[in-house]
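User: quick one - fold this with magnesium ion bound?
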Amino acid sequence: MPRITDARVIVTCPGRNFVTLKIETDAGVHGVGDATLNGRELAVAAYLSEHVVPCLIGRDAHRIEDIWQFLYKGAYWRRGPVTMSAIAAVDMALWDIKGKIAGLPVYQLLGGASREAVMVYGHANGVGIDDTIAAARGYIDQGYKAVRLQCGVPGMAGTYGVSKRRDRYEPADSDLPTETIWSTEKYLRIVPPLFAAAREALGPDVHLLHDVHHRLTPIEAARLAKDLEPYRPFWIEDATPAENQDGFRLIRQHSTTPLAVGEVFNAIWDAKTLIENQLIDYIRATVTHAGGLTHLRRIAALADLYQVRTGCHGATDLSPVAMAAALHFDLSVPNFGIQEYMAQTDETDRVFPHAYRFEAGQMHPGEAPGLGVDIDEAQAATYPYKRAYLPVARLEDGTLWSW
Ligand code: GCO
Ligand code: MG
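Assistant: Sure. Structure tokens for the protein plus magnesium ion:
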């Protein structure tokens, strides 16, 4: 049996912060897992190094399910993003080790490929409608079959999803949280014309997506879903905060626009009511924030019973380790829908050499044994941690809102 001999947490900032767990075994192989929780990175790093790593040493690295249960039930304090990201990192690293020992890519251990490759969506954004459509064309020219559209809101200084640099989007931009101003009324005036113009300009085939980023009340979200219906969006995402799951019932009563939710979910219990009541169409939980491959597969299996498909979060605050793990998951689950993809910086790609590849709007995890991704510790050490927070949003009268 491969015994765990050592585990350590590596925090690096090649342009943005990443937390990686590396587990060593006496079988001559190691595994890596992503534990990045944007803006709260060191909480997960400490949870792992202070409370998880000591419990791992000496254990059989093959016992993935048992170690998962040990860390989940054994903590007594269940769930939560910090706990579940820490468990996820261990889980990913153990799947990586198992794959390397078996000499197989992880997707083979998960039942093999259910498709040739996985459809991804890119992020098109711009200050106005025209440059957003131009950005979308840029993605379509690269072969993308699906594009997310976000544009600036007239009368507002900035908004979620619109970056200074078109090809990169990094909201965690400041040593202390940046304060931004939000106007629902102004936002609701611009998104339907954006979609009307995009559908007209880009034709019927390309999938168009949009992220509301938790900013609307249920009835406002229902209005947006209804207004966008003629333009056949692939989904609208996080239309309203999901703590109140009945809010989604209200949106459903008014529209057939598909709904996606779940990038901030960390356990199957966050999604259970939404899935069982068929209040959503896509579940966006990720391998990093929702307990690793072991738990994400459980969520996907529940979703599959209700024809809810997966659409994993894939922003740049998930490291290439998470992207690799997501692609093995995506390739294997029967109810895959789509995968979000944002290219990382060259520095990040150098710190995390990987086997996954993009081609014509689709991605594949590659055939390397394990996850097919690693961390170059020497490179990582040259980029020390730098505190960075996500922004906060306030209404025009100063009321704190959902960012
Ligand atoms: C997305 C997300 C991200 C989040 C980010 C927060 O759909 O890609 O909403 O961009 O804002 O992951 O850390
Ligand atoms: Mg989102």
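One thing worth noting: Residues 81-102 form the longest helix (22 residues).
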